[in-house]
Amino acid sequence: MAAVAAKKKFRQYSQEYLKYGFTTSLTNDTMPLCLLCEKTFSNDAMKPAKMKDHLERVHSDKKNKYRDYFKTLKENLKSRSDIKTFFKAPASADTEGDLKASYNISLIIAKKGKAHTLGEEIIIPAIK
Ligand SMILES: [Zn+2]
User: Fold this and answer.
1) 38, 59 in Cβ contact below 8 A?
2) Residue 59 sits in which domain range?
3) pLDDT given at position 117
4) Is residue 99 assigned to a domain?
5) Ion ligand 1 contact residues with beta carbon within 5 A
6) How many domains does the chain have?
7) CA 92 to ligand 1 centroid distance, Å
8) CA 122 to centroid of ligand 1, rounded, Å
9) Is 118 inside a domain boundary?
C-alpha cells in the first residue's frame, strides 16, 4: 500500500473497491464502473472516497451490503457481457449478409435491366 499512485498516470483499481460496489469498466480497466447503476466513471473517480460517496448518495439502500453481494453483481455483469459478445458476432455477420444480398440483387437487376423491362412487357400483358 506504500507506493501510492503518485507517479502513475492512472489510478489503479483495487479489489478493495468492490466493497463500494465498484468494479472496472469491461472495456477500460482504468475506469471504475458502478455495479448498481452500471455507469462508468472517469479515472478521476477511482478513489475510495468518491466511490463511497457515490454509494452512499446514489445507492444509500445498498450501502450496507456485503462484498459478496457486489461480487455476485460483478459476476452477473460479466456473464451478461459474455452473452452479448456471443450473440453480437453472428448478428453483425447477418447484417453484412443482408447488405451483400441486396447488393447482389441490385447488381443482377442492373445487369438484367433489359431483361427486366422485357419481362414487364411480356409477362404483364400475359397475366392480363
Ligand atoms: Zn451507481
Assistant:
1) no
2) 15-93
3) 62
4) no
5) 34, 36-37, 58
6) 1
7) 31
8) 67
9) no
In this prediction, residue 35 carries a pLDDT of 97
Q: Check: CB of residue 58 under 8 Å from CB of residue 37.
A: yes
- Grid coordinates belonging to 94: 447477418
Task: pLDDT tens for the chain, 128 residues: list them.
Answer: 555 545 568 899 999 999 999 999 989 999 999 999 999 999 999 999 999 999 999 999 999 998 999 999 999 999 988 877 767 655 555 556 666 666 676 777 677 666 556 556 665 666 66
pLDDT value for 119: 59
Report how far ligand 1's centroid is from the alpha carbon of 56 (Å): 9
Ligand 1 centroid–CA 78 distance in Å is 17
Q: Is residue 46 part of a domain?
A: yes
| Ligand 1 geometric centre to CA of 95 (Å) | 34
Residue in the structure block whose three cell numbers are 445487369: 111
Q: Identify the residue whose cell numbers are 445507492.
A: 59
* Beta carbons within 10 angstroms of residue 46's beta carbon: 21
Q: Quote the cell numbers at residue 17.
A: 473497491
From the CA of 36, how far away is ligand 1's center (Å)?
Answer: 5
Residue 50 lies in a domain: yes
